[in-house]
Amino acid sequence: MKPAPFAYKRARSLDEAVALLGEHRDARLLAGGQSLIATLNMRLSAPTLLIDINGIAGLDRITRNNGSVEIGALVRHAQAERSADIARHVPLIARAMPTIGHPAIRNRGTLGGSIAFADPAAELPACLLALGGEVEATGPNGKRVIKADDFFTGLFETALAPDELLTAIRVPAATAQTRTGFAELARRHGDYAIAGLAATARADGKGLSDVRLAFFGVGATPLRANTSEAALAHGDIDGAVAALDLEPHDDVQATAATKKHLAGVLLRRVAAQLMEAR
Amino acid sequence: MSDLSLDITLTVNGERIAERVEARKSLVDFLRDDLALTGSHVGCEHGVCGTCTVRVNGEIVRGCLMLAVQCDGATVETIEGLSDSGEVADLQRAFEQRNALQCGYCTPGMLATAQDLLSRGGVPSRDEIREHISGNYCRCTGYHAIVDAVEAVAQARAGAKP
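Predict the joint structure of the above. Result:
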């Protein structure tokens, strides 16, 4: 299908984008467009204005400072996939990247767009949650920081205000003790996952501590599994699987029962990755 | 509101183009309807099938998930350009020789995607070839012949350029 008519403006600066968002309450921001334009084409969304933020300078950088890595909102998946800094300092995102869409999608799609769109089956929101990262939001009153644990509030809903845009994400840089795990099950490589799991932990002697499990595709938002995290920290994989209390709904890809089963399969795979010596 | 249509200037297959386009028009519809470059096909229109794959500023993109207005100032290459320049001539020959197409609907996107992989150099594994073309549906061949063709060209190019 073809989209309903809309107007289009290129924002040249953050201030201009924020001002346009404030003036046009049914406007949508256009970054990579790999989800947005699909929803426009299917007429699932019909904004009157698209505000193209691709021309705003300075949002496409990956920078490391004081033990954290900042990824600008317009960093594209392909750019992150090629980045030596991401490979070295954010290995979880490096692991997830090849599973996100296909090469042509990754050339356009942005990390910031994926996180702000908050598709419950998308990889990057779960990665941000597993990393315990944060979102930098810019609005009329300047910048504020929202923790990943507080950011995803519902199905395609986030803590961003209508006149705010996501300008960067910040995640802790990996240390020698950092362990990461990532797995997803999809019908075709690059499709949205039926179920997936992103995880981080800290190697602590022979065991793990600070385990963070973030499931995706099994709820309205990416979901932590706190009881399973505690079990995994004690090395109890069976207990971690038994403690999974996800309540997925049936969707076009799989039944709730299948998703619950697959979540256990993923947890075993990811637990093995977390426990691998680096 | 104004801005429902915008003037854009871009280079398509080496030719400078200046047109006024509706903001809502996708790149692939612009190429097909306004420029009569019908080699790029329209399939699913939501980024799944890959038959609209074209190159923008040297990188493959979904022509249905990019707006024509976003290509102001860009360099766009379609299968017509890739064919005319001879860049994919060996791939086209290999596709023909190995029956890597039947109806041909996916072929322009498949060639652009395969060329994107091969332009990185080296000889990719069959798994890597499959992964790279995973975003391009083919409902005729079962993919095996396509992987054969891409692999054969990769090997031939590597042999030709030691």
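Chain A touches chain B at residues 1-9, 30, 33-34, 37-38, 40-42, 48-50, 52, 54, 78, 98, 101-105, 107-108, 188-191 (CB under 8 Å).
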